[in-house]
Amino acid sequence: IQLATGPPVMAMGGFNGSDPTPTLEDLQHYIGDGQLRFVIAMSSGAGSFGLGFGQVTGVGGWVRANCTIASVSGGTARNLYDCAGAA
What we know:
The chain is of the alpha+beta class and 87 residues long. The protein has helices spanning 2-5, 24-32, 53-57, 59-66; strands spanning 38-40, 68-72, 75-82.
């Protein structure tokens, strides 16, 4: 993603989604400070917020409840959430 777009990208949840970092509070802080705007959060699958990391920290549920599906050229992106102003 970073190579295609240019802006920095932060990996979260580790390889299989079981790394509980950043915490929900960390994520809310990054969003509130404007350091983070877009989050990819899938409902299931290894490496997503649906399994492991999402279940442990509540990040995936919070993102899906407080952020909106991002609008992209040609429509919407199914798993890309715009979290501007969500924290």
